[in-house]
Write a structure and sequence with these properties.
14 helices; about 425 residues; single chain; Spore Coat Polysaccharide Biosynthesis Protein SpsA, Chain A; about 40% helix; seven-stranded mixed sheet; two-stranded antiparallel ribbon; globular; alpha/beta
Length: about 425
């Protein structure tokens, strides 16, 4: 690939052989504009650790190819590279919130990159490369798919600030890291068949965006679970991943391996010592903090804040609201998804992002109110069954006819599959 280039489209892809000395693999990430500071901090770490590595940022809600200028080996792409019709992109932006949309298109983006590169490594924008990811190329040659589990060791009950229930909720692997080779194309195709309409944050039905699907996909497609302690270290596994500072090459105490990739999930760069706010506890009080971790988090925070200062005020997510400025609620998105699945690819639903459809979309929202109430009642019924099991069973015995209705409602509400 060229040393410097702007936004790429499918027709612009060339093979690495076209550029002397190009590496076989590319690193990439996916963001909305509001997360560009983190993506640029990640880029800076890649430039520092692997200066010959190409890095591609997919921005889902704007063309920011201007950021490629004067940044060697950085390409900033738009959703045009996904190979989807514009209306299908709009539909995804409507049925999904920003996290769901960003994760849903991951297999399409990776597949796109595999046209030009033999290997592609996805990294969440809030990850930070600490040393070269040298283990990946041979592993991808052998396996084709490499994933990182949240944990590598059993957790004794009451022994840590987190439990293995975490993996039952969000998935065995953390998809802030995902490495694939060209032999993974069947896996990516299978993954997309689910994420196209089922990339939901929906714990009531055991679904968590792209991650829970790979619990199945890893088995179906023989993915390799990487047991290197230095990859995808994050708040959820710090109890087993303590490391020493930079003078010791960021070495992991448990294994002696080098720290490769840290995942700053739930990180506030203005309060770097807190490490993460996502797990609802104080990490220092939990005993997982260290001088080395503080040093790394402050270093990362400085990179993010520098990028934030350069970019200016954080823009609003472009698909947060319709053309009248009204925020698209989760219930509205779910109702639109239901109608979209019901009507299929050739639907005639009005787009919330086209001014010409503003009046029609407002009418659709009014018409969908019953569907939204019904969906909410379905979720409440599912929750009731487990939150109030005794009362639920009493209803079953005392009101068999009403229970039969409720049971049908539960089955209908849990029908996520198209």
């Amino acid at each position: 690939m060229d040393e410097q280039k702007g936004s790429i489209l499918s027709s612009d892809i060339s093979t690495p052989a076209d550029s002397a000395g190009a590496l076989r693999g590319v690193y990439c990430t996916i963001v909305a504009q509001n997360y560009l500071p983190q993506a640029l901090a990640l880029y800076s770490s890649i430039r520092e650790m692997e200066p010959d590595r190409d890095f591609v940022i997919l921005v889902i809600d704007e063309d920011r190819s201007d950021l490629s200028r004067d940044r060697p080996r950085l390409t900033v792409a738009t959703t045009e590279v996904l190979g989807l019709p514009p209306r299908e992109v709009s539909d995804l932006a409507t049925i999904y919130d920003v996290v769901e949309f960003s994760t849903a298109v991951k297999p399409l983006f990776l597949k796109y990159l595999l046209v030009a590169y033999e290997q592609a490594v996805y990294l969440d924008p809030d990850t930070f490369v600490v040393s070269p990811l040298i283990e990946l190329e041979p592993l991808l040659d052998e396996w084709g798919i490499v994933l990182t589990p949240h944990f590598l060791e059993p957790i004794e009950p009451g022994d840590a600030y987190i439990s293995e229930v975490h993996s039952l909720t969000v998935g065995i692997h953390n998809l802030g890291f995902c490495a694939v080779g060209r032999q993974a194309i069947p896996f990516l195709d299978w993954w997309w068949t689910h994420l196209e309409r089922e990339c939901l944050i929906y714990p009531l039905l055991g679904i968590f965006v792209d991650q829970k699907w790979t619990d199945i996909g890893a088995t179906l497609f023989n993915a390799h679970s990487l047991r290197h302690y230095g990859y995808n270290v994050g708040p959820w596994n710090l109890h087993e991943r303590s490391f020493d500072d930079e003078s010791s090459a960021w070495s992991l105490r448990q294994s002696g391996e080098q720290l490769r990739l840290f995942h700053f999930s739930g990180f506030n760069p203005e309060d770097p010592d807190a490490i993460s706010v996502r797990l609802n506890f104080n990490m220092k009080e939990a005993g997982v903090g260290s001088n080395a971790l503080t040093s790394l988090s402050r270093r990362y925070a400085a990179r993010v804040l520098d990028a934030r200062s350069m970019l200016g005020a954080n823009p609003r997510y472009a698909f947060e609201a319709d053309t009248t400025g009204k925020v698209l609620s989760k219930r509205v998105r779910r109702a639109y998804r239901k109608d979209l699945i019901g009507q299929g690819k050739r639907h005639n639903l009005p787009s919330p992002f086209e001014s010409i459809d503003a009046r029609a979309f407002k009418k659709w929202k009014i018409k969908s109110l019953a569907s939204r109430v019904s969906a909410g009642a379905g979720d409440a019924a599912i929750a009731m069954k487990y939150a109030f099991p005794d009362e639920y069973n009493s209803m079953k015995r005392a009101l068999p006819a009403q229970f039969t209705w409720l049971r049908k409602r539960l089955l209908r509400a849990s029908r996520v599959r198209r």
